[in-house]
Amino acid sequence: MTDEAIRFENVTVEAGGDEILRGVSGSVGRGRVAAIIGPSGAGKSSLLSLCNMLRSPSSGKVYVLGREVREWDVRSLRRQVGMVFQAATIFPGTVEQNLAYGLRLHGQVLSDAGSLLEDIGLSRDLLGRKAEDLSGGQKQRVALGRVLAMEPEILLLDEVTSALDVHAKQEVERTILHLHEKLRATLFWVTHDLAQAKRVADDIWFMAEGRLIEVGSTASFFAAPSSDEARAFLEQMTEEMEQ
Ligand SMILES: Nc1ncnc2c1ncn2[C@@H]1O[C@H](COP(=O)(O)OP(=O)(O)OP(=O)(O)O)[C@@H](O)[C@H]1O
Fold it and tell me: What local confidence, expressed as pLDDT, does residue 126 receive?
């Protein structure tokens, strides 16, 4: 059994005639929280989507839990690698039906929706409520709960709090970290919010123009990034926050 949750080996992705990822190599250790940051269009979401085969590399290799993604059965891969997006995915029906949806696709039933709901910080009273009537933060927690019901080894998070207000953002963030503690899942987390990256991540992956420019521990990255690109990015983000 490998200690690596995810490994990229010289991965390039072409789309629409452009290279949107160029020669990316790196790995995320099991149980780690790695935040991917960088300017808009850097390729952060594209990198995430290689990990559950929403996208395939044009060249190079992607390994998940020690096995190359092309060797995985896609259904099994997506069971092990859950993904949550910026806009909470909510289906018509009750909260309970929404929580059970992922397992149902795998022919399984959710045995204890009530305790799952408590795990994601929501009251059991909401089980029978129409999911569409929930607040933005509650919907995002239901989307998380649906993925977590499958007990994934890896959770891919793509800007999951950026559509939420400050209060809901903090609650969803706390819920994710609580579940990380509980399940020991590996988190690979794209965020535009540098303060969030600092709070949640063990490691920072800094990307720009389709390249992985540097990877470092969160403390060392924010104290002294080693690349000019990352230094310029941090300065620009700090200026924007001060305006
Ligand atoms: N299917 C596609 N065809 C052509 N170009 C694409 C396609 N998907 C993504 N791109 C381009 O690839 C680049 C990287 O996109 P990606 O969404 O991965 O970046 P990102 O760092 O997540 O950006 P953001 O922070 O704005 O979400 C962008 O320039 C985007 O326009």
Answer: 96
- Determine the pLDDT at residue 182: 86
Percent share of the chain, pLDDT over 70: 100
List the 154-158 sheet strands across, edge first. 81-84, 154-158, 186-190, 33-37, 203-208, 211-217
Rounded mean pLDDT of the chain? 94
User: Do 85 and 29 meet the contact criterion of CB atoms below 8 Å apart?
Assistant: no
Kindly give, in sequence order, each residue whose CB lies less than 8 Å from that of residue 213, ignoring residues fewer than 6 positions away.
38, 206, 207, 227, 229, 230
- Note whether 13 and 55 are within 8 A (CB): yes
Residue-wise pLDDT for 114-139, tens only, equals: 999 998 989 999 999 999 999 999 99
Ligand 1 atom, smallest distance to 192 CA: 25
46 CA distance to ligand 1 centroid (A)? 6
Burial class (CB in 10 A: 0-12, 13-18, 19+), 121: middle
Ligand 1 and 40: CB distance under 6 A = yes
DSSP H or E stretch at residue 74 = helix 74-80
Q: Which atom of ligand 1 is nearest to the CA of 20?
A: 12
| Domains of the chain, each with CATH number or no CATH | 4-242 (3.40.50.300)
Look at ligand 1, atom 8, and give the residue with the nearest C-alpha: 15
| Alpha carbon of 12 to ligand 1 centroid (Å) | 13
| Residue range 93-100: mean pLDDT, rounded | 97
